[in-house]
């Protein structure tokens, strides 16, 4: 990766924030360089009505929808290193999930860039599984989609079922019958079955009992040893503190603080009262 080589040779980021410090002794795996993400949304011009009436206004060029821009991420720069587990915190609307989607390559940059050494994988509460298929079939399809061979999938199957800890017999039921917690546990169990270059977890640990959360934290620590880096968005600050070696605090799309979990979490709690 050219960017990693440049960083190791102490070449500064082109648009880095002044507080970004590059460690020449560690291997960069994700570089976010002056990243801006802008959403373009359309409003109905303030008029109420159903979809048909809105369409007729558009056709007649009356009260055409107005485009508005939402600047969700504003000039964010940082370097993540191999072995990092980074918690991303902030109030609702601060840009946390948007940042993860951008790192995963799901959102285009309006300005700046994201570089990754390897393939990022985004795991969210709404990560796609086939609702009409059984949990068992989803495990097989999910593993194959992640690049595991049929033999590797077969070898991992029982481990995934055990980790997800579903109610007895539910592994053979359609996913449509699962609670949100059961679905989240199965998604995490499938994603954790292989080593990821960069694993992005968005609120996937928010659902589940204390036992599952403990297992999830242990699994993330495992992944950190074997994988590249782990990013975790969670409103539960205890999960962040126990799981991550670094925390990035986003505020209104900008990095407010980036550093040691204890220091960042204390500053965040003092500022927000959460």
From TrEMBL:
Pfam families, sorted: ABC_tran
All residue ranges annotated as the ABC transporter domain in the record: 56-271
Keyword check for Chaperone: no
Keyword terms: ATP-binding, Nucleotide-binding, Transport
Top-rank taxon, per record: Bacteria
Lineage: Bacteria, Bacillati, Actinomycetota, Actinomycetes, Streptosporangiales
Family per similarity comment: Belongs to the ABC transporter superfamily.
PROSITE patterns xrefs: ABC_TRANSPORTER_2
Protein's UniProt name: Teichoic acid transport system ATP-binding protein
UniProt-recorded Gene Ontology molecular function terms: ABC-type transporter activity; ATP binding; ATP hydrolysis activity
Record SUPFAM superfamilies: P-loop containing nucleoside triphosphate hydrolases
Cellular component annotations (GO), alphabetically ordered: membrane
CDD domains from the UniProt entry: ABC_KpsT_Wzt
Natural source organism: Actinomadura namibiensis
Family annotation (SMART domains): AAA
InterPro entries the UniProt entry points to: AAA+_ATPase, ABC_transporter-like_ATP-bd, ABC_transpr_TagH-like, Bact_Polysacc_Export_ATP-bd, P-loop_NTPase
